[in-house]
Amino acid sequence: MGKQDTIRQRIRLLVIAAVVFATLIVGIDAVIVCVGMVKKDYERYAETATAHLLKTLENGGGEWSYITASGTVCIGDEPLSTDLFDKINDSSEAVFHTVFKDDLRVLTNIKKDDGTYAVGTKADADIYKSVKAGNTVIKNGIKILNGRYTVCYMPIYNNGEFWGMMFTGVSQSTVTGEALRLVLAIAAGIAVSLVIIIIIASRMLKQIGERMIGNLDRGHAKLKGFAGHIKEIAARTTTETADITTAMNSVAQGATGQAAATEEAMASTEEFANGIDVLNEEVRESKNVLERIRDCVKDSEDAISLLNASIADNDSKVSEISADIDKGVEKTENAKSIVKTIDEIAFQINLLALNASVEAAHAGRFGLGFAVVADEIKNLAASSTQSASETSDIIAEIVDTMKKTKASNQALIAGNTEQTERANIVSQRMEAVKENIGEIVEKLNTIRDRSDALQVVKDELVKVVEALSSTAQENAAVSQQVCASTETVGKDVENMAESLSEVDNICDELDGIAAFFGKE
Asked: How far apart are CA 66 and CA 68, in angstroms?
């Protein structure tokens, strides 16, 4: 029990030390804040004292002046002296007042070590510049003689024009005394607070200890019961996990065999699917080829029809030409008779010309002109006879040419007739080919439709086999995971059983803690 009492005492000491440290921190902060507030108060005091002094001095309404020869400062006709500063200052502490003409100290109650007043010195240039601009300058910690002062500078005006500065310095020894008094007051408060806090902390520690003992007792009892219950569950779980492991091993073996079988079925299904795809492609290519052949046959039929029409048109034209040739031959024969008539007329004219020449000769010189005409007529008759002969020859040649052309036309008609018959035969055979192609295309369409149906069946079969394969693989994987998890659970149960012995040790330690806090 002596060791436990020592530990409890240390805990109390730690709590007290923490409280004291926190109280000191709070007290120091309070002192700092209070000192700052006191400094602010003395800044206001210095400013108020300076303003009060300046107002008191200017109450007479005169103007400020400085007589350099005598070193006297006057307001109106009244000279100022340091005695007035002492009368105005009602504080027991040292308060200094100074009058500056511009930045020169001309009147002050600050004395030097030799007992003379500290006049003739100049103010700080920055302070003078700021005050001349119309500002009030307040500063802390300014060293005057052997002390620190809070000082205030205010501008002095004559009829609105800057004349000089009024200075007041308040000793900070007052601030130090106020701060010391605050520290003593705070220290007293801290001491009283520590006593009160220690009493309250002791009572609170006792109450906390009693509550903790009760909680530890209840927790100890519950933990003991929980540990026993967990041991029973662990024993049952160990047996059950062994049975589950054996069953899942059998399931895993069956799932592995099923996965292998589904993989073989998947391979066969893929081969079957590839065969269907190849068949579909070949049927598609065959149909395309037949479609192209049918198009070619149709084009050939159209060409034959055009050829037959062209042959028939040529036969018609050749027949017309033959008829024209017959008419030409007939007209040529008529022309021959006309030429023959012209030849006869020319012969008669020649005879008449000969008779006319004979008669002209009988007429003598009177018939000379008539003889000339007769000669010309004779010559004309000779020319006509010659032309008629040549025309007859040409007509004969034309008749021969027309007869040859007619013979050629007849041979052409015979050839066209033969070509037409052959084209008709080819057209009939192409028609038969087209009919056969149509039947083949219909059969290919039937094959394609059945192949499409097989394609749908193939796709469904592939999906089913893939689903079976995936399920089999997942079953095998899950079975293996369950086996592994079951083994892990078994090991965890064994570890948990071992850990329960540590729970017993924890219960014993809780008993020791409860005893530490005063349990009988």
From this structure: 6
Check: CB of residue 49 under 8 Å from CB of residue 95.
yes
Q: Which of 196, 153, 139 has its CA nearest to residue 54?
A: 153
* Mean pLDDT, the chain, whole residue set: 75
Could you tell me the two tokens for 54?
């300046």
CA gap 231, 256 in Å, rounded: 37
Tokens of 288: 């395309």
Q: Helices 368-516 and 2-57 meet at what angle, rounded to 10?
A: 110
With H, G, I as helix, E, B as strand and everything else as coil, classify residue 147.
strand
Tens of pLDDT, residue by residue over 244-291, are 667 666 766 666 666 676 677 667 667 766 777 776 777 778 778 777
pLDDT digits (tens, 9 = 90+) for 335-365: 778 878 887 887 788 788 778 777 777 777 7
Cα–Cα distance for residue pair 27/194, rounded to 1 Å: 12
**What is the distance between the alpha carbons of residues 295 and 460, in angstroms, rounded to a whole number?**
38
Percent residues over pLDDT 90 in the chain: 8
- Over 70: is that where the pLDDT of 519 sits? no
pLDDT band with cut points at 50, 70 and 90 for residue 433: confident
Nearest Cα to 170, choosing from 192, 150, 184, 187? 150
pLDDT surpasses 80 at 217: no
Instruction: Provide, for the chain, the percentages of residues in helix, strand and coil under a 3-state DSSP scheme, each rounded to the nearest 5.
Output: 80, 10, 10
What tokens does 251 get?
């399931």
Which residues does residue 100 pair with via DSSP β-bridges, in sequence order? 105, 165
SS (H, E, C) 432-462: HHHHHHHHHHHHHHHHHHHHHHHHHHHHHHH
User: Comparing C-alpha atoms, which of 89, 79, 103 is closest to residue 52?
Assistant: 89
Strands across the sheet containing 72-75: 64-67, 72-75, 78-79
